[in-house]
Design goal:
The protein is an all-alpha fold and about 180 residues long. It is built from eleven helices and no strands. The protein is elongated and about 60 Å long. Pfam families: Retrotran_gag_2.
């Protein structure tokens, strides 16, 4: 929803206007009305109770945030546990693995608990299967500062994980077919 408001140039109704903003009050009011309407139109009917009495887009946003964003200790602990236990073998593709890792880190950052970028890169490397050990050793010996972007780029370049095994099975299929032909 945040991205939709940003795309429509309505996010300033939530975030607030810059001190040096030159917009007229009527423009600000119209922007707020549009943002409030956009929020109300994007939510599911069950959430209407949280925005029904909101007079401003900011008020509606804050009400939804209070209702749906658990920022307590148990939520933070749950996210940290998910992050340190994340494993590539639990995902069908490398992209899904990387995206989930970054998503969990972003959720922690949204709770004012950002994960150190180098630590996040190490987490991404630690969740790989043993077939990636040569890559991990190469990164370790490269004397390059480990960052999540660096690790993400290296992992996304590797396209062998999660690929359909048809390409790998083709040589076996042809081998078996030629073997059958020789036997007859």
């Amino acid at each position: 929803m945040r991205m939709a408001l940003i795309h429509e140039n309505l996010w300033k109704s939530i975030e607030g206007y810059q001190a040096d903003d030159q917009s007229k009050e009527s423009e600000k009011k119209r922007c707020n009305e549009k943002a409030l309407a956009k929020i109300c139109l994007m939510i599911k009917p069950i959430a209407y109770t949280h925005v029904r009495l909101a007079k401003t887009a900011k008020e509606a946003w804050d009400n939804l945030q209070k209702a749906y964003e658990d920022q307590g200790l148990s939520r933070r602990l749950s996210l940290i546990r998910r992050l340190v236990r994340i494993r590539l073998e639990n995902y069908s593709t490398m992209e899904a693995y990387v995206n989930e890792t970054l998503s969990i880190a972003q959720k922690l950052a949204d709770m004012a608990q950002p994960v150190d970028d180098e630590f996040l890169g190490v987490i991404m490397l630690s969740g790989l299967t043993s077939e990636y050990d040569p890559m991990v050793m190469a990164i370790e010996n490269s004397n390059v500062k480990i960052t999540s972007d660096f690790v993400k780029a290296r992992l996304m370049q590797d396209d062998k994980y999660g690929k359909d095994n048809k390409e790998n099975m083709r040589p076996l299929y042809f081998l078996r077919k030629s073997f059958k032909q020789r036997r007859t």
